[in-house]
Design brief:
Length: 404
């Protein structure tokens, strides 16, 4: 998922959760591709039953259990749950079609407020045509969700993602369907840098290519890069009209989960840079007059870092940034010429220093990821180690507002 779930595990797993754990461990221990296929089919039977019945609790409980007891089994289960909730085979008029839930992400930044709104008919049709021309395989059937959605409006569970896949998949095949419903979005926490998503389902006859780069891989596998270049060239004017007052970066349209994670990774440093720049203007001070407080947040491990900004010699948090983590990001094989990766908290601190913030506090331990019960906004750490609501002083310029 684009953001990690947090669950409170029960002391005893339900039958379905225990079955998922057993199957994930069996698949992890498999010694051949033939055996893999058997366990994958068994896992699919249980996961799809739970998704059809909207029983996310069993999936989350199994993942929570494995995250504490067997990371290899956890990775197996989350990979299978993601695959089955973002892709499927749908039979229509006696033919079988591979269907994939796809997102085309944008990373946007502004000094105002980033829109998340319905896309009018004409630009929606143009985006659909460019998607088919530059990104998707020939004759791919597409259903575009006509809304530029924020992450908080997107599906939050595997079951919700599977529901969007089924509904938009039927739409792509021209069958009757019910449109997906956007989740409500917190209104109290306007972010200066954030992601926006164009969502679609694509369908092709079973076993056929989904993407243009599968048909035209190009020399040395550069087909994906060529597709992105053409997609950017033709869609930039459309997105500029949909995101007034914003700068943005257009990323490669791809499968739901991988695109979510890629976009969220890209937005993290931008959110910090945008915050420092905007606070300097709003408070009429230099970046060197700001203090940043960094805290690792989670229930049992650090799932995200939260950065609270204060003025020097003050404890009131005036703004905050989120830096979510996605598994073992730094545990990647290195090439001979590559230096070892630095710790995430060092990466954040170095970025703040580049922005001109020299007073940086790192809080020890792990804090709970608290939210405001009234408005849903995340709390951020102050220098005393407390998680508090971010509030601009009364004499500051107003919080990010819509661009007019």
């Amino acid at each position: 998922m684009a953001r990690l779930r947090s669950t409170t595990p029960s002391t005893r797993l339900t039958r379905d959760a225990a079955r998922l754990v057993a199957l994930a461990l069996a698949l992890h221990s498999s010694g051949s591709r033939v055996e893999d296929r058997y366990w994958e089919a068994e896992l699919a039977n249980v996961l799809l039953k739970l998704m059809r019945n909207h029983h996310d609790g069993a999936i989350d409980a199994a993942l929570e259990h494995l995250s504490q007891t067997h990371l290899g089994g956890y990775e197996v289960l989350i990979e299978q749950a993601e695959t089955l909730s973002e892709s499927c085979v749908i039979e229509q008029d006696g033919k079988r079609f591979d269907v994939l839930l796809l997102v085309a992400p944008l990373v946007a930044w502004t000094r105002y407020s980033i829109p998340a709104s319905e896309i009018p008919t004409a630009p929606a049709q143009a985006l659909r045509e460019h998607l088919q021309r530059h990104v998707l395989a020939r004759d791919t059937q597409v259903a575009l969700f006509p809304h530029l959605a924020s992450l908080d409006q997107m599906p939050r569970t595997f079951c919700e993602t599977w529901d969007w896949l089924q509904k938009l998949g039927l739409a792509a095949l021209g069958a009757s369907y019910t449109a997906p419903t956007l989740n409500s979005e917190p209104e109290a926490f306007n972010m200066l840098a954030d992601t926006r998503y164009l969502v679609a389902a694509i369908a092709v006859p079973e076993g056929q290519p989904l993407f243009r780069w599968q048909e035209e891989p190009g020399e040395l596998g550069v087909g994906r890069e060529s597709c992105l270049e053409r997609w950017i060239a033709d869609t930039t004017p459309i997105f500029a009209n949909l995101l007034p007052g914003c700068g943005f970066e257009i990323l490669t349209p791809d499968a739901y989960y991988v695109s979510n994670r890629d976009a969220d990774r890209r937005v993290r440093p931008l959110s910090v840079k945008a915050a420092v720049s905007w606070l300097g203007a709003a408070l009429n001070i230099e970046a060197s007059k700001l203090r940043a407080v960094i805290a690792g947040c989670g229930e049992r491990r650090i799932d995200e870092y939260r950065i609270g900004f204060t003025q020097k010699n003050q404890n009131e948090v005036v703004y905050g940034c989120l830096w979510p983590l996605y598994g073992r990001e730094d545990d990647q094989p290195l090439l001979d010429h590559e230096p070892p990766p630095i710790e995430t908290i060092d990466e954040i601190a170095n970025l703040l220093k580049e922005c001109g913030v020299s007073d940086i506090r790192r809080l020890p331990g792990i804090l709970m990821p608290e939210f405001c019960e009234d408005c849903g906004a995340p709390y951020f750490p102050n220098p005393n180690g407390e998680m508090v609501h971010a509030e601009l002083p009364e004499d500051a310029e107003t919080a990010p507002a819509h661009f007019h």
